Automatic annotation (TrEMBL):
Name of the protein described by the UniProt record: Replication initiation protein
Pfam family, one: RepSA
Entries under InterPro entries matching the protein: RepSA
Region listing for Disordered, in residue ranges: 432-497, 528-571
Biased composition annotated in UniProt, kind: Basic residues: 476-488
């Protein structure tokens, strides 16, 4: 296969970051807006001209196919290396893929970021997967039997206490300040008197929120055992507590938890819960456990010279509702679909969406001057940064989590028996992708079918390497695409017939994050083409989607794109 000769090296230093295609070049501060606009247009015309040369050489269509499999990822990971699959029984080499054989000269993998502010495409996939995970634990499916829908389950919300009066929307309609605030008012959640607001307590409560949730689950098991007349040790022989929770930020910057809590039999969702396990018992146990939960921390932030105990607890507003109850959405019932969609929505959001803070870590506090954030979030970050200098708070690592306003726990967690896992969902999607017919060359087919990601008809296809047969096999689970992968890493992959006879030997190295300028411009053209394509009848759309699953860029034709690039270069 011919390799595209791009006007820049395929491998760039790790520290380099590709420039944005439409970023205004840096210059003097007195550059006028029209001049900046002309510079952006000139840059766009220059990039379009380079794409036109690639189109004339016949290299544009393969590039569009590889980039299209990213599904619109904003910051894809670039890898260099190779992967070989062979039959472990006979030693026969099934296929060998080298990154140099790919159209871009590198393997492009989706970033897989869950944050909607960082990568909308990957966060959408994460939200879809979270929805399936939560829904499976409520109505069955995947590895969970359908009988789980008859088990006692509640939807609980645990909030933070108050640290000072803030602008809000009470039931009376008027805030404490005497005014009525609309939903989009930036004052909502900000303190009425910032000088008297307990910022230190607010940050430290966020830092202890994960410990509060862990202590809450312990008290919840104790309350269930107490209500059923059992000891906590013997409870596991009669019932199992399963839950899935997500952390959401309030406008005031405090974390509160939404959780689906379910009671199963002794072996999990496959067993029937005992007769005493009712929704009402679970409701009362959740409320009692939330009221009893306490976490102690040595040292008072208000008094450096005295030692004491700072006690953290949940707020008084504890909401517990039986799923299939009322008042979840107005007068509508609390259904599995409502709960799963509600939790999945907040799984892709962080403090930046509600509080107006940052979505990435700070290296230096001085970096705050370059970010446009709210004053309330700025003061909470400053508080976290300065509290980290005190020895009694060193274990909280507040500087590392200052952008999260002190919260350092997982956004979403679940128990082992609640339902399936995200890794299983990704493996199923990757296996389905691998089994689809593909009209590309073997190298492109393997790259797009096993590693790259796409969205077909609004449904995610493959968001990141997560299956034993993917192209990037050899990465250590949970370590993403960092450098230093061991060469000759071996993984056993399953064949479609269920026999584990495929040996995968791979070696990948990190080459950078983000597309290079020409490829980024091409990705923007593909995205614009997808947004402007006309609506077709359902049957026609399905036909096109089947072609997309074969590895072609979603929602565009490479021939039409080539014509558009050539026309843009002439213009």
């Amino acid at each position: 296969m011919n390799l595209v000769e791009l006007p820049y090296p395929a491998i760039v230093p790790t520290a380099s970051r590709p420039s944005q295609a439409f970023t205004t070049p840096s210059g003097s501060a007195d550059v006028t807006a029209p001049a900046a606009g002309r510079s952006a247009l000139e840059r766009r015309a220059r990039l379009t001209g380079r794409l036109a040369k690639l189109a004339a050489a016949g290299h544009l269509a393969p590039l569009a196919q590889q980039i299209g499999t990213l599904g619109g990822c904003a910051h894809p990971i670039r890898l260099t290396g190779h992967r070989t699959r062979l039959d472990s029984a006979t030693g026969e080499i099934l296929d060998h893929i080298d990154s140099g054989q790919l159209p871009a000269g590198e393997l492009l993998v989706r970033c897989g970021n869950r944050r909607a502010t960082r990568c909308p495409a990957c966060s959408t996939v994460y939200r879809y997967d979270t929805y399936q995970l939560i829904a499976a634990g409520l109505r069955g499916g995947r590895t969970v039997p359908a009988s789980v829908a008859a088990h006692p389950r509640v939807f609980a919300t645990l909030t933070a206490p108050g640290f000072g009066p803030v602008h809000n929307q009470p039931d009376s309609g008027r805030c404490h300040c005497g005014h009525t605030h609309p939903d989009d008012n930036p004052l909502l959640g900000t303190p009425l008197d910032p000088e008297r607001y307990d910022y230190a307590g607010a940050v430290l409560w966020n830092a202890h929120a994960p410990a509060l949730w862990a202590r809450f689950t312990t008290h919840l098991r104790r309350e269930i055992a107490k209500a059923s007349g059992l000891t906590q040790r013997s409870l596991r022989y009669h019932a199992t507590l399963s839950y899935a929770k997500v952390a959401e930020y309030q406008k005031r910057g405090q974390v509160h938890f939404h959780a689906v809590i379910r009671l199963d039999g002794p072996t999990g969702p496959t067993s029937t819960p005992p007769a005493w396990a009712t929704t009402e018992l679970l409701n009362q146990a959740v409320r009692a456990a939330a009221a009893r939960t306490r976490v102690h921390h040595a040292g008072k932030p208000q008094d450096e010279g005295r030692s004491g105990w700072l006690v953290f607890r949940f707020g008084r507003q504890v909401d517990v509702r039986a799923i299939h109850g009322t008042d979840f959405t107005g007068d509508g019932p609390v259904t599995e679909r409502h709960v799963a969609a509600y939790i999945a929505k907040y799984a892709t959001k962080g403090a930046e969406t509600t509080t107006g803070t940052l979505d990435r870590r700070l290296r230096l506090l001085a970096e705050l001057v370059t970010h446009d954030i709210t004053d309330h979030a700025r003061r909470m970050i400053h508080t976290a940064w300065h509290l980290a200098t005190r020895p009694q708070h060193a274990h909280l690592r507040l500087r590392q989590w200052a952008h999260m306003l002190g919260f350092r726990g997982h956004v979403s967690t679940r128990t082992r028996h609640y339902s399936t896992a995200l890794a299983h969902l990704r493996a199923e999607r990757a296996a389905w992708r691998t089994g689809q017919p593909d009209a590309q060359t073997p190298a492109q087919a393997s790259a797009s079918a096993e590693t790259q990601a796409g969205q077909t008809g609004g449904s995610p296809v493959s968001d990141r390497a997560g299956h034993s047969t993917d192209l990037a096999a050899g990465h250590r689970p949970g370590h993403g695409h960092s450098t230093g992968h061991r060469p000759g890493r071996r993984d056993i992959a399953a064949r479609p017939d269920g026999s584990d006879t495929t040996l995968v030997i791979s070696h990948w190295q990190y080459a950078g994050t983000g597309l290079l300028p020409e490829l980024e411009h091409l990705a923007d053209l593909l995205a614009a083409k997808r947004q402007t394509r006309p609506e077709q009848p359902t049957r026609t759309r399905r036909s096109k989607r089947s072609g997309d699953r074969a590895g072609h860029p979603v929602g565009h034709s490479t021939d039409r794109l080539t014509s558009a690039v050539r026309a843009g270069a002439v213009a």
